[in-house]
């Protein structure tokens, strides 16, 4: 029976890292998606506040 540490080392050697540009693109994609989602939520709040009669002037 293999020990837990030897199995962990074995799995670590099999795993391959994605190229750095793919990891950066995931970061950019997640950032852009979160900014877009924030914009959608802000727009919805603005529409609800305008519908309720709240205006900036």
SSE topology:
Blueprint: H1 4-14, H2 20-51
Summary, kept brief:
With 57 residues, the protein is an all-alpha fold. The chain contains two helices and no strands. The chain has helices at 4-14, 20-51.
Shape: elongated
Low-confidence stretches: none
- The number of E-state strands comes to 0
- What's the domain count? 1
Distance between the termini: 75 Å
The percentage helix is: over 70%
Q: What structural class should be given to the helix and strand makeup? A: mainly alpha
Q: How large is the radius of gyration?
A: 23 Å
Q: Would you tell me the overall average pLDDT?
A: 86
Taking the sheet with the most strands, its summary is:
none
Instruction: Give the H and E element order.
Output: HH
Helix count equals 2
Strand content: under 5%
């Amino acid at each position: 029976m293999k020990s837990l540490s030897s199995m962990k080392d074995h799995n670590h050697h099999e795993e391959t890292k994605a190229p750095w540009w793919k990891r950066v693109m995931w970061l950019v994609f997640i950032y852009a998606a979160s900014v877009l989602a924030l914009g959608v939520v802000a727009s919805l709040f603005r529409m609800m506040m305008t519908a309720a009669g709240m205006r900036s002037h």
